[in-house]
Amino acid sequence: MVMGPALRLLLIVSLGVQLIVAANVGNLLLAKAASRQKEVAIRQSAGASRWQVTKLFLTESMLLALIGGGLGALAAAWAVDLVSLFMPKELSVGAQLSFHLDGASLGFTLLLALATGLAFGMLPALQASRFNLQAALKEGGRSSQGGASQHRLRGGLVVAEIAIALVLLIGAGLCVKGLRQAAKIDFGFNPDHVLIGGMRIGMNGYTEETGKVFYRQVQQRIAGLPGVEDAALASWFPLGLSGCKGWDVSVDGYQRPTGEDKTYEFAVVSPRYFSTLRIPLVSGREFTEADDAGAAKVAVVNETFAKRFWPGRDPIGRQFRTGGTLRTVVGIAKDGKYNQLSEGPWCFFYVPFLQGVSDLDLNLCVRTRGDPAAFSAQLSQAVHGIDPGVELTQTVPLSVHSGMVLLPQRMASSLLLLLGLVALFLASMGVYAILAYAVSQRTQEFGVRIALGASSRDILGLVIGRGLLLAGAGVAIGIGAAFALTRLMAGFLYGVSPVDLATFVGVPLLLGMVALLACYVPARRATRVDPIVALRAE
């Protein structure tokens, strides 16, 4: 499945964002539980057991999880249509993708929401059930019982949020940079100004012989249209979403290494195919009209094919057997990219459609002087002029077709960047929330410090230092995790190392700046504490 790796990556990223959201909710629930110490103490004084208190908090967290999961499912049912915004209008010849929300997805979402509510609701529930009853009642609900452990737990959740956000952002940065590098890769052909389209004549009653006549007429008529530089036919075009056929190949004298696959991919093409796609011929010639059923069976092979079977020798005139036919090599085509941009040297060969190859359904490729998409109507009319029953379907520029090889990477990069920014926002909100809560709990301390002569800069540094300490710990853990996990993204990267230095430096700096901004707001609030009001409030 072409989209499989990208979808699995996005599932992992989505779970990462889910963990950040859950950590934020867990922090809020912990803070809420701390503020309800007096309520819990009164309930226990009235005879409530620890289990009843725990059940109360768990019920509240599970209710929040169900409401959130339900709203999320409704939003997903609407947002799934937005996936089409990441898809080209025309995918490629013969390829279609669709996305929908099914019962299994909804069930998994609700189960995940319940599991999250149970896991992160358990923490405040256990904390609340362990409050010191007498201390909570004496201090009016603002007991510091368990304060240190709660601060450590909330701080640990924020550190985890920042670490996850950093990993997601680094992954997004690597994908985006990889896409830019992919645009510089030599395809081995020139897709610009080329329009392709499919013709399915098998259902129109054509035979192998009458099909050859039809295709010849189509190629000749279209090649004569104004604005058309060249036209050709092919069973397959490189770098799309559809696969390519393969045949067994045997060469006299070639010793096949153990385990080597003897099936090699090929394309059935017409004369002018190589000139239409601007595929350079290293030596020899391309196919001509003379390479028909009555002539000697021929083939054009690529450089890797020639080097594998005839190393150090001239491949022109050499023979190999494939598809039960002995063929003579008449040309050597330059190596190119056939299925994936990340593939290494790849053996490939071409055979002429005039030599009895039973591919009735071929595709048209036309090189134009202007915008290729503007020629779609003219090409359809030309095909109808020969046979009104044959439709030219799914016409699309070759640049779009070949660009489809990057569809998984484009979708992964776009959604990963979006989810990474969401994670950044949530992590910054987590830093802000824990510092804002800490400031509200330390009002008396700040009042005393200011009364004893502490300046605004001292208070500012105290609060910001706490936030940056959490951010620094998260960044350090996140960088370590990113070093380990981004190696799994090698299939999505082109010309970019999974440990790219610029990305691993730039993203932590960005995250640090956002964390600093999140620290500044509650820190400024701390500097404005009136010591008299703060001391009286306590």
Quick recap of the structure?
The chain is of the alpha+beta class. It has 16 helices and eleven strands. Residues 90-95 and 140-146 have low confidence and may be disordered.
Largest sheet: 6 strands, mixed, barrel
Extract low-pLDDT stretches.
Answer: 90-95, 140-146
The geometry reads as elongated
What's the Cα radius of gyration? 33 Å
State the helix count. Answer: 16
Estimated helix fraction: 40-55%
Alpha-beta content class: alpha+beta
- Taking the alpha carbons of the first and last residues, their distance comes to 64 Å
* Order of adjacent strands in the largest pleated sheet: 3-4-9-6-8-7
SSE string, helices as H and strands as E? HHHHHHEHEEEHEEHEEEEHEHHHHHH
Arithmetic mean of pLDDT: 81
Describe this structure in words.
The longest helix has 36 residues, at 147-182. The chain contains 16 helices and 11 strands. The chain has helices at residues 4-35, 37-45, 50-79, 103-129, 133-138, 147-182, 208-223, 273-276, 303-309, 376-386, 398-403, 407-441, 443-451, 456-485, 501-527, 531-537; strands at 194-199, 228-234, 246-250, 263-269, 281-284, 298-302, 319-322, 325-333, 348-352, 363-368, 392-397. The protein is α+β, with helices and mostly antiparallel strands and 538 residues long. It has a 6-stranded mixed beta barrel. A 4-stranded antiparallel beta sheet has the order 2-10-1-11.
